[in-house]
Design a protein that fits this description.
Layout: E1 7-9, H1 12-16, H2 18-27, E2 31-33, H3 42-49, E3 54-57, H4 64-67, E4 75-78, H5 88-93, E5 97-99, H6 106-121, H7 124-132, E6 148-152, H8 156-165, E7 171-175, E8 187-189, H9 192-198, E9 201-204, H10 218-223, E10 228-232, H11 241-250, E11 253-258, H12 269-272, E12 277-279, H13 288-304
Parallel strand pairs: 1-2, 1-3, 3-4, 4-5, 6-7, 6-9, 7-8, 9-10, 10-11, 11-12
Helix pairs in contact: 2-13, 6-8
Length: about 300
Amino acid sequence: MSKKELVAVTSRSFSRSPILRQRLQEKFSNVKFNDDGIKLTTEPLIQFLMGAERAIIGLEVIDDTLLDNLPDLKVICKVGTGIDKIDLNALKRRKISFTATPGVNKRSVSELVLGLIFTLQRHLLTVHNALKQGVWEQTSGSLLSNKIVGIIGFGSIGQDLAKLLSVFDCRCLVFDIQSHKDLMPHVHQVELDTLLNQSDIISLHIPLLPENKYFLDTREFMKMKKGAILVNTARGGLINETALYDALVSGNLSAAALDVFEHEPNIPKNLLKLDNFFATSHIGGSTEEAITAMGMLAIENLEKLMV
């Protein structure tokens, strides 16, 4: 491994971090950062990565079209967990090494889930907007304590969320394709329909794979407990946003909070107009602590993966 190799960093959060920049430059002498802080797509992304042997990426799409123009690229390290935008077969055909940083941002995401739940249950956006209009409304909400929380996907984030929910005496119903043993006393693995029928709150934590496209659609919304709330901090394509709108308007679903969307950064305007819908801009892993931890692991992986 030559320290003169060009390392290109497309990740905006990594590029903004003085700590990560310094650490990477201690390891490699030829580094290019995304100093403009722009979302790199198609041709600009090709131009940015041109000549780089190693790359640290964020949410960029890596596919055949891109890789056909980057013959020098041999190692890619992703800051983050989701790999739905990465064509792993295209990387394998070109013998390009790839790694991500799964699990490192679990507390960052699970804490956001709690924040979104509180926002919905206490109607914080409605109260805030009323105050901005000069209206003093003491709107009543509901407790998180003693609720039944459905966790779809029980990987590192789902498990961390369940751990946090134990403090609130919640009963957690989890659905996962893998069987889990030695669960905490308040956690029970169930079938999906059982989770949908019984949960007061549902939180998504599964990867976006072809078979998971629109994992929650009209059928699933109809099976949910009337008055339930939904939180998604995983991937936007897991939810049919048209079906979600219908469920929110009909009242079958009480409220929903989404941090991720199918066509980011575009959010359906009809959803944004609803009083029982709350949106954030894919900030699940965007805490200083998580960014630093994921970045440090990406640097470590960058060194380990040989060209």
